[in-house]
Each structure stands twice: as C-alpha cells, then as structure tokens.
Amino acid sequence: MAFRRHFSGGPFEAKLAYCRALEADGWIFVSGSTGTDPETGEMPHGVVAQCRNTLGTIGRALAEFGAGFGDVVRVTYMLPDRADFEACWPVLQEVFGDAPPAATMIECGLISPAMKIEIEVTAKAP
User: Which PANTHER family does the record cross-reference, listed alphabetically (predicted)?
Assistant: First the structure.
C-alpha cells in the first residue's frame, strides 16, 4: 500500500514525529490540529477563533489530496472544557453544512493550556 504524507510545517510535527495528514488507499487521515494562527504563529485566546483556525489548517491539508470538507466522514472534537463547544457550533455548521460527518466530542486535556480545541478528521478521497 502506498502512502502520501502532507507536512504543514507546524512545530509539533518534528517534535512528536507525525505528519499533518496521510492518504492511504483512498482514505485521508488528518492528525489532531489546533488553532495556531498560520500567519502569526500565535494562539488566539477564544475558542471560536481557535476553531476557525483549526478548520483552516484541516482544510488546507485536505486540499493537498484534492479533498474538502464535503469528503469528511468522521470528525473528533477534543476540548478541555466541554462548555466551550456550543460556541463553535455555528462555525461547524458553516463548514459542514448539508454534509455533516459522524462526530464525537471528547472533554480532555490538550498539550498546552492555551489550546481550547483540537480537531481530527477522516475523509474519503474524491
């Protein structure tokens, strides 16, 4: 089986030995991604801004394989505080709209206290 890997250049990819996304046999697996602003390298304070940035990172990774959010079949949301999740719902509605994937939300600790949300997805390549 051939693998294609995408590296976004994020600092944790090298430190933790992983790639942002991997395509195998027509499936795309996007690693857990967080809300660092790709232009400034800063982490916004609010969960909604982090959610938007995170989805931007995921969207760019999917695009590397010719896919988009309509191809996502599974999404996992991880938040340190489940009470923050509802504020993200309008953003998720914008992104997934009429093609929502199967989803799970997990309340858990993230690698940095500044991180308010981490998202990972699985998609079927078009």
Answer: BLR7761 PROTEIN, YJGH FAMILY PROTEIN
